[in-house]
Amino acid sequence: MTPLEKQLLAAPRRHRYILTVAAIVLLLAIWSFTAFDLKDIDPSGLTIAWTIFQGIIRPDTGLLLGFSEQNVGYLLLETLAIAFLGTLVGAVLAVPLAFLAASNIVPKPVAWLTRLALIVIRTVPALVYGLMLIRVTGPGPFAGVLTIGLTSIGMLAKLYVDAIEELDTRVLESMTSIGCSTLENIRYGIVPQLSAVFLSIIIYRFDMNMREASILGLVAAGGIGAPLIFAMRSYKWEQVGAILIGMVILILLIEIVSSKLRMKLIRG
Amino acid sequence: MIQFIQASKTYAGGTTALRNVNLTIKQGEFVAVIGLSGAGKSTLIRCINRMHELTEGKLLVDNIDIAKLKGKQIRQFRRRIGMIFQSFNLVTRTTVINNVLVSFVPELPMWRKLTGMFTREQKIKALEALDKVGILDKAYTRVDQLSGGQQQRVALARTLAQQPDIILADEPIASLDPVTARAVMDDFRNINKQMNISVIMNIHHVDIALEYADRILGVRKGEIVFDGPSSQVTAEMLRHIYGGEWEAESSWEASAAYA
Amino acid sequence: MLDRLFPPKRIALPNGKAVMEKRSRIPLIGAGLALCTSASVYFTDFRLQTLIGRIDQFWVIVSDMLPPDWSSLGQLWPPLLDTVKMSLLGSIAGALLALPAAVMAASNIVRSKPVAAAGKAALSLLRTLPTLVTALIATFVFGLGPLAGTAAIMLFTLSYVGKLLCEQIENADMGPFEAMESLGMTRMQAFRFAVLPQVLPGYISTSLFCFEGNVRYAAILGYVGAGGIGLLINENLAWRDYPRVGMIIVALIVTVYLIETVSEHFRKKLI
Question: Which chains touch B (3 or more CB pairs under 8 A)?
């Protein structure tokens, strides 16, 4: 056999792996289709979509631009406040939990238990927390703050832990060698490394929390969600349009500001 | 045969890259283009396969006015011209042979194009091209595990698989160490002599250009200031091409060090 | 800009050289934060005493949820599986559609700048809509049930994966792309053979990550009638049947944990 022919036969067989994975994914997709019956689709759905669309482009400007408690501006500010405070609460509470879940700081069993607790906290749907917390604080934005706080703890702790586990411990070594105590180690060795990353994570979470806060109104936990639902259920699409536009603009603004801030944090 | 007839190129910002170029290159010539960076060497080369377009004048390749080509014709035209880059321009995440097989893509039917499955004949041709540049044994290695010289050879194999009439090379050895650079230049010379493929190469290393190319084009500020056999290049001419920044003495010493 | 308001401090060394030290931004940031916090407290009626006084109510509910009602497990399965199916199909469809969407928004592949800008704007816009809102609207268009939820998840995945993929495409190495155009491929072919291999691992990884999050969202979507287990949660909470809610949460935790572990395994292999 010429060297050429030898090489021809030496080709590695990755095709089979890729094909099996693709087949499995296809099967899963087909299985998922059984969740609903395509026959049940109502053709009137398209007309409804069209009406919604029209409502969006002709919003109720009175609702949009007024300043009273009922109006979009105030409610958006309220939503913003819920997201801000909730993120703050979550960010602070997540720090100790994250350290407890990091396997390079605490012994393995402790870390594993904390991680389990974090998974539980993360998986409980936000609306469930909302309803539970309303029992504590009564309906209104206060419950919203606590809900956002709780859900944030889960996500923030997970990202914090990733950052902690990537800590560069060599700095600590050099500090100990010049005679620093543990506290000094933490303050000057760990904190500078982590603060930029943590801040970036927190800002990212704030961005997402804005979106979550918008829907808390569903369970009467304040913010712009409640009027949105009312408007939708009463088919007042112009109002829906007004609310949606206000919401989208606010979220977009925050997203732009937050990504600029995070860019600055990364680049220094 | 490539003919530039009173060709000029001015970029949108106002810079004139090529000025009234008149040039004929016959099939099978080995031409080296020398000059300062920004003198217009890259533009000259890239006009030949219409990666850049002339703003004035004509460019004929085998008597076809390439400015008149459209869409699919341009792509078919480009199939006949191979291009070698300074930074190799390979897909580093995949294997050597996959990079060479890519040159067959324009011939494939749509379904093969989507899935990336090549025919057996194409695989054999790709392996032959790899053999010609001497890296058959690396056919299934990932490109990012190869050295610079080996990568440039993969690029050469990719071009050979196209079976081109012309090979354009834009600073092909600039990223390579002197020994590997010579090996790659030897490959170019073999390809040029054995397969009668025209080679038009931008190159900074004047001494290597003089050693390997039959013909030298000196470009200065978009104009051809020298066009002749390498034997006729003098130190004074080099100073003119490089605008007085050329030190002829040091270049002869450097070439002695290479040898 | 801040340097103009608070000029840098000049520190003079004994050997005559001088260094300009920028004033620390921290007091400014601290003041800003304090302002935002007090404003937020005002807007949200945050009262620490209420929290401390009534927090035991929270634990009362939690203790009601445990031990969970194991007998309701049989009832749980169909809606739970519906939730998984919704997120799976929505994620797959959304991820698949994200590829052409990202290509159209990438300024280095699509030649006309307005088209790329429009693509990016569309993706950003889609991303700002919370999933629940799109799900609600979807229930009006598609009727109640999992179809609405799947549509909402598909839209979200499309925008999330699409935006990230677009960024990756724009940061890709265009060298091989130029090489392939020079040997006669169309832009789309050059994309497929030069850029796609570079962005593929990141693309799949992002899609998997999005899928993980989608399963959690899908659980809530039922609350607005978009199918899945959310409806059951709503019912049970309304009836104050906390042991059943506890059971649902336990089942949800196990499912999410399994999915996350499998997904993380594949994501690690991709890097």
Answer: A, C
Q: Would you say C203 and C161 are in contact if contact means Cβ atoms under 8 Å apart?
A: yes
How confident is the model over A147-158, as pLDDT tens digits? Answer: 888 888 988 888
Domain boundaries, chain C: 1-44, 70-270
Please answer whether residues C249 and A123 qualify as being in contact, where contact means their C-beta atoms are separated by less than 8 angstroms.
yes
Tokens of B244: 């007085």
Inter-chain touch A12–B123, beta carbons under 8 Å: no
pLDDT digits over A118-177, tens only? 888 888 888 788 878 877 777 778 888 888 888 889 888 888 888 887 776 777 777 777
Chain C contact for A34 (CB, 8 A cutoff): yes
Nearest CA in chain C to A147: C58
Interface test with B, best of C182, C191, C196, C204 (most B CBs within 10 A): C182
Bridge pairing between strands B198-202 and B166-170 = parallel
User: Cβ contact (<8 Å) for B89 and C176?
Assistant: yes
Cβ <8 Å between B106 and C184 = yes
Phi and psi (nearest 5°) for A266?
A: -70, -40
The reply to whether ipTM tops 0.85 is no
pTM: 0.81
Q: Which of A236, A235, A239 is nearest to A247 (CA)?
A: A239
Kindly list the averaged pLDDT for each block of 10 residues, start to end, along chain B of length 259.
88 84 91 86 88 88 87 88 91 90 88 84 90 88 90 93 92 90 92 93 89 90 87 82 58 46
* Domain C70-270 grouped into CATH 1.20.120.80: no
CB contacts of C132 in chain A (<8 Å) are 215, 218
A207 lies within 8 A of chain C by CB: no
Distance from CA of B83 to the nearest CA of C (A): 7
- CA B112 – CA B48 distance, rounded (Å): 30
| Structure confidence at residue B258 (pLDDT) | 45
- Most C CBs within 10 A among A75, A77, A89, A137, hence the mutation to make, goes to A137
Angle at the Cα of B101 (from B96 to B107), degrees rounded to 5? 170
Tell me how far apart the alpha carbons of residues A22 and A125 are, in angstroms, rounded to a whole number.
31
Measure the CA–CA gap between C198 and C177, rounded to whole angstroms: 11
For C40-75, the DSSP string reads HHHHHT--HHHHHHHHHHHHHHHHHHSS--GGGHHH
CATH class label, A67-267: mainly alpha
Minimal Cα distance from B164: which residue of C? C183
Which ranges in chain A belong to alpha helices (H)?
3-9, 15-33, 44-57, 61-65, 72-101, 108-123, 126-137, 141-165, 170-177, 182-185, 191-215, 225-233, 237-267
Task: Please check whether residue C204 is in contact with residue C196, taking contact to mean a CB–CB distance below 8 angstroms.
Answer: no
Query: Angle between the A141-165 and C26-44 helix axes, to the nearest 10 degrees?
Result: 140
Cα B143 to chain centroid, rounded: 21
- Among C207, C171, C191, smallest CA distance to C104 is for C191
Taking the C-alpha atoms of residue A126 and residue A117, their distance in angstroms, rounded to an integer, is: 16
Residues 6+ away with beta carbon under 8 Å from B87: B175, C175
- End-to-end, the C-alpha distance of chain B in Å comes to 34
Which helix (DSSP H) or strand (DSSP E) does residue B7 occupy?
Answer: strand B2-10
Dist CA B213 CA B190 (whole Å): 12
A85, A141, C36, C37 from C42: Cα distances, Å: 11, 10, 10, 9
Residue B243 φ then ψ, to 5°: 65, 40
CB C154 within 8 A of CB C90: yes
CB-CB: which of A4, A10, A11 is closest to B131?
A4
The alpha carbons of chain C give a radius of gyration, in whole angstroms, of 26
Rounded distance between C-alpha atoms, residue B80 and residue B162, angstroms? 7
**Least CB-CB distance to B75: which of C186, C193, C194?**
C186
Q: Domain boundaries in chain B?
A: 89-163
